[in-house]
Structure formats: C-alpha cells, structure tokens
Amino acid sequence: MHGDWNGSNSYWSKSSIPVYNDEVIIPSNSNLTILTGTTAVCKNIDVQYGAVFDVQAGAILSIKTP
Question: Which residue range forms the structural domain that includes residue 12?
C-alpha cells in the first residue's frame, strides 16, 4: 500500500476507501499519506511497526471510535 489514502480503492481490503465504521490496518511495508485539503475517516486505525503514515498539514483524519 503506497500513495494517497483517497487515491485508489485497490489499496483497501474491502476494495473501497474506508468510511466511518471501517477498522483500518496499515501494514508494515506501507507508505500512505492523507494529502493536504483532503479528509480521511475510519472507526479505528492500527499503524503497524515499519509503516510510514503521514497526515499532511491541512489534511484531516477523523477517527470515529464510539
């Protein structure tokens, strides 16, 4: 998984960009970015050891854990 969080459905196991009720795992060999001016949502997120995960300035990550 490499690139923009919102860039491709193929990055994700459900073949769609995560929504508020999805549990996200970013595997250890990944390099994923939420780009400036975009929003990403999920229920919770697990960034595994060795992964690179960047939320750029002006981007929003909203985690909707109950």
Answer: 2-63
